[in-house]
Amino acid sequence: LCLQVLWDFVTAKELLIKSPYFPVLFSFTAYMAFCLPYITLDFLSTRLPCLRKYKIQPQSYPTLGMMVPCIIQSAYHHAVLIFPVTFFHWYWRPVKLPVMAPELPEVLLEVTVCLLLFDFEYFLWHLLHHRVPWLYKTFHKVHHKHVSTFALTTQYSSVWELLSLGFFAAINPVLLRCHPLTEMIFFLVNIWLSVEDHSGYDLPWSTHRLVPFGLYGGAPHHDLHHLKFKSNYAPYFTHWDRLFGTFTES
């Protein structure tokens, strides 16, 4: 019932959702909204010691001069690169909005499977781009400009990296034939987890603290990757790094 109410609210904005502009607006707005709390935290932490203790690398704080280029690059990529791609996707696969919302167990299962698939795809892509020097220097090195990450470095990357990872995120719900609402929820969860990974903070309510047995690495796991470069290639979960011997305890 709660999902049907939510879906009715979404479908009430049918003209917007079926617009070719919706995917890029949805993506950029969600990304900036998820970054904003961490941007605020970055400015407050330099003045409040009670917040500073949650910074993973407390000796390093982003400045406004570091943040602005990240925002400009993200806005440019969304307008010049992501929008044409999503426009062709909109043309090729017109949006269809069913009347009924999906069942909650179905949403939870499919979002989890999409995350696991994305995690595996990203791990292989990431490992390959670190093990092959040409790939690293040509495509992935841009993302490693900042050894101490902050939220806005999440999408600070080359065009190839942005489009590759965007393709992985987009194709998985299509392959699973997810409901449009499930697809939206997955995109939101994926963007949030990516931003949290790069936030540079280990907060009491961080996702990795909510998932038991160390199955989810979270911000400490990924922050260590940016610091050490040669371990922790999976974005979210830890099982692939453990299996391939690339796991380092954060």
Automatic annotation (TrEMBL):
Alphabetical list of InterPro entries matching this protein: Fatty_acid_hydroxylase, Sterol_Desaturase_Related
Domain of life: Eukaryota
GO MF terms held by the record: iron ion binding; oxidoreductase activity
Domain Fatty acid hydroxylase: 112-246
Pfam families listed in its UniProt record: FA_hydroxylase
Record-annotated membrane-spanning stretches: 20-44, 64-87, 107-128
Keywords: Membrane, Transmembrane, Transmembrane helix
Gene Ontology annotations of biological process type: lipid biosynthetic process
Cellular component terms per the entry's GO annotation: membrane
Location(s) in or outside the cell: Membrane
Protein name listed in UniProt: Cholesterol 25-hydroxylase-like
Organism encoding this protein: Tinamus guttatus (White-throated tinamou)
